[in-house]
Specification:
- The protein folds into 2 domains: about 100 residues, RNA polymerase sigma factor, region 2, helix turn helix motif (Rna Polymerase Sigma Factor, Chain: A); about 70 residues, Winged helix-like DNA-binding domain superfamily/Winged helix DNA-binding domain (Arc Repressor Mutant, subunit A).
- It contains 8 helices and no strands.
- α1 packs across α2, α2 runs antiparallel to α3 and α7 packs across α8.
Amino acid sequence: MIEDELLKWRFKRGSQEALRRIYEKYLNYLLTLAMALLNNASEAEDVVHDVFVSFAGSTEDFKLSGSLRGYLASCVLNRARDHIRSTRRHSIASAGANSASSEPNGPEQSVISTEESARLNRAIAELPIDQREAIILRTKGEMKFKEIARLQGVSVNTVQGRYRYGLNKLRSILNGEVEK
């Protein structure tokens, strides 16, 4: 965490080296989160790219007293939400159009390395977005319920409920108990 405080301080003062180090340090973590939320490799890469482009342009306005990792995760979460809403609107407008392929290639090979993980990702994609976020941020993002509650703007009890209900629904989906 001391490194992050130094990186934030240097980034605020315009250090390109600090920005590069932040990118290197958090890229895989953020790609994993985005991939888990979107279940599409190219969309996940686009979201993370957009977050870093926006972040890089924020040096003058940058004020962060909390966790850099949490801040970047919340940025990815918000961009992913926006992307999901946008995709939903687009698919409604063009009903009948085929959805984009989520064929793995590149860095996502480490995320989806087996058929079981691909099956799990498909099952997670079936969860309601609030439950999906709670599970992904807790398991892949390694965030505490309190942090997730702050991100989602709800109580800790609500997040714990979403997490529990999401896990139960996920179990049902994976066991073939949920009708489609």
